[in-house]
Amino acid sequence: MERLARQRSYLLCPPTHFTVEYVINPWMDPDIAVDTAHAVAQWTDLRDTLAGLGHEVCELAPEPGLPDMVFAANGAFVVDGVAYGAQFKYPQRAAEAKAHQRFYEDAGWRFVPPTVVNEGEGDFAYLPAAHGGLILAGFGFRTETDAHGEAQEALGRPVISLKLVDPHFYHLDTALAALDDGNVVYYPAAFSDSSQRVLRQLFPDAVVAPREDAMAFGLNLVSDGRNVVLNTECAGLARTLAAAGYHPVPVDLSELKKGGGSVKCCVAELRR
Ligand code: ARG
User: Fold this and answer.
1) Which Gene3D superfamilies match (predicted)?
2) pTM assigned to the model
């Protein structure tokens, strides 16, 4: 099957101030040294890879004292030109939300401020061609279920709530990704039994990944419909995706994994 790429706009933030100095997910360990220069080099490779695939890449200015700001996916969730803002669960990341809000307001996007905890595209995914335009939303660790209704009101698209149950996969984007406008890849055991059933009903043709790929941050990928940019460590998933007609593009983000993130965490999609 011939898969078609669609040109995208992405927002990224360089890991200039990246460190691991607090623990808010099971991947973070302040006793393990972080090589910030290495993180910047790997991130630069990710940015150049996305640009090299023909996508527009916007950059947010990194701020000292916000070591997780590289994970730009968490700053908002954008559909049809409307940005629904984030409200971070942990105080260590709270100030990131304002930087994202400023970006959207300065660039003339409609910005809807949140009133409840939600971590942006970390916990929201959008499938424009699934059932006429469907938002998937995770809860259980970070984003509160009240934010799902708030997102639906802000964005005018149906929101499907999915319960995350494994702390390793604390954001939706660590366990599920949109491969194209209508299909997803996911790791079933990251979700409750009922949410797995919902996913099977909505996406009977989904690509299903084993735990090995999920633990290698393989589901934390960015796809343009054809090119699937994903962490180098998940060779198994890359083969599965190639067999399904996609074009895997591996990038090494081993340093950022120490913060509990990979490709998708670094990328927010700007959907006009
Ligand atoms: N250390 C960050 C946190 O725990 C990592 C965020 C990863 N972002 C993501 N979209 N999954 O909040």
Assistant:
1) L-arginine/glycine Amidinotransferase, Chain A
2) 0.97
